[in-house]
Amino acid sequence: MRRMVRRACAALIIGLMPVIAQAQTILRDPDIEYTLGRLARPIFEAAGLSPSRMNILIIADDSPNAFVLDNSHIFIHSGLILRLDSAAELQAVIAHEAAHITGGHIVQRYGQVDMATRTAALGLLLSGAALAAGAEPSGAAGMAMGVAGSAQGVLLGHTRAQEASADQAGIRFMANAGVPPQAMVDVLDMFRGQEVLSSARQDPYARTHPLSRDRLRALQGFVAATPNNGQPDASADYWYARARGKLEAFIRPPSFTLRRVKASDTSDIALMRRAVALHRLPDRDQAISTINKLVSIRPDDPFYAELQGQILLENREFDSAVRAYQRAAQKAPRNAQIQAGLGRALLATGTASNLNPAIKALESARARDSYDPKLLRHLAGAYAKAGNEAMAALNASEAHLLRGDCAAALPQAQRASASLGHGTVGWNRAQDVVDACEGALGKKR
User: Fold this and answer.
1) Where are the domains of the chain?
2) Which of 64, 78, 186, 372 is the most exposed place for a label (fewest CB within 10 A)?
């Protein structure tokens, strides 16, 4: 069964080559993804959705939007997160999109057959980014994989009836989760007046989630009629401010961040934002000094240790980067991106004794995130340094396949298949690539 699933996944990648080629960036970061999982968990539980099966991913796009494409992935544009003011507002966005899932609006939009194809394809592209709610991954500047274009042809253009239904269900989810439902009104209030603009001038959220004065009025009525004991959550707001601050520090110009963060502010979030901005200037010495100060006041935080590792690694302080990633891995041993960072740092030292530990860390990451081409390229390089050409070829072939390049993937997979033992896990992986690419290239001919 697993063999058949892997072949199906490889074939789906081939079919998605045009999609991958026009992909947008999906941002990955441990702080941000931990925050998303933490804030979403009570909403998903109230909606009857399994938090461990749901994934929230951030698209690097300044326009404010959020959407669902299948029953387990919610996409939020970075531009929308940067416009929200509180954790409750982000939870309102999640609740509304979750309501589109529970309401069956995706199937209604596309139909059963087309939706099954979209769901399988999207699930493949994003399986490397799939995270159990509450897990902790790495690297706001890092790109893991993409989604097609600006999602223009695939965004759900919901009907007014669907929007009203999602509003009502979303408010119920928020109330049951102890989140003040008023936050949903506050979010939609940002887009008030959009309906009078031409579609070309409307924000994407307004185009895909029809707005009107009647809808806002009805929403206010739903909120007034909903019993709610929810109060602002200081812990949730801390994590939201931290995630939003880190996202902004990586996306906005460093000068923007340094102007907004006062030098007198010694809070951990301020130090984190300054460290990122200084690193991006670049101001090596000040960036390292700042991140070291941050880690000294939060020594048990795996995310800050991971950021320290990233900054040190990108400044060629390889041994120090290894130590930082090791501390992060001790605190979050199941985190794929932290394990991948540790593997990269160990490889970067160029020390022979670090080669096997690097491969072990990278394989640990691949076991949890097997659809990250960057990770697979590093793993291929590590095996090549170790003299294991078969495994180097295997991982290189899968990395090429994930980029949609069968011309490069096929010979590498054939080389791996010829060297690896027939019927082994590695041989099966290589054959999946061979089968998929031979079929794709044959069709092209």
Assistant:
1) 2-225, 252-298
2) 186
